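Practice problem 4.
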């Protein structure tokens, strides 16, 4: 039987090959190598369910480290391209956040599928100057193709839709994460609130 418990994790799946926080920024945002070639970054906040077993980055986690993410809602961004003074459509969009949540939900949360990894990295201790090995739990929300409601009603603002699980699905998970959008914790440009709860 899988062991289930609540855990606080960092949003943004990271493999152990990423050496430190600086390398994590490069991994996510991309970088230029010594020859000036641009290496595209990997956005690992979400993992597409259709590719979980095809991408080496997620394969092992999909098989062995699944989780349930408890949230009170999430945001999708509508990109609107305004018309300029000369009547041309501008290239830079204006972004409008849309808060997505379950209507008439009797619970203060709903559940999303996720995968996680214990990211092992080395960081310099600012006080001692010594290199320390740190283990940071990281996770990604599993997504799938948008359903009719998300694709049509909200005018295609969501190209993918989070995989929402029923309560029975917790049997397939080893960890439970609680998080909501807020202002309490900023993680690499994404601000979320992580709630720690203890259960017996």
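Answer key:
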């Amino acid at each position: 039987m899988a062991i289930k418990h609540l855990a606080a994790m960092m949003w943004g799946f990271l493999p152990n090959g990423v050496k430190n926080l600086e390398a994590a920024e490069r991994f996510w945002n991309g970088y230029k190598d010594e020859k000036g070639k641009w290496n595209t970054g990997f956005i690992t906040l979400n993992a597409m369910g259709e590719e979980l077993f095809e991408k080496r980055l997620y394969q092992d986690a999909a098989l062995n480290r699944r989780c349930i993410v408890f949230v009170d809602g999430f945001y999708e961004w509508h990109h609107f391209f305004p018309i300029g003074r000369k009547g041309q459509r501008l290239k830079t969009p204006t972004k409008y956040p849309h808060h997505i949540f379950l209507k008439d939900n009797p619970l203060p949360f709903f559940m999303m599928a996720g995968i996680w990894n214990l990211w092992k990295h080395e960081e310099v201790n600012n006080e001692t100057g010594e290199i320390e090995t740190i283990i940071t739990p990281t996770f990604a929300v599993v997504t799938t193709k948008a359903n009719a409601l998300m694709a049509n009603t909200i005018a295609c603002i969501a190209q993918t839709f989070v995989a929402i699980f029923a309560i029975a699905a917790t049997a397939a998970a080893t960890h439970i994460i609680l998080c909501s959008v807020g202002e309490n914790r900023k993680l690499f440009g994404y601000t979320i609130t992580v709630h720690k709860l203890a259960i017996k």
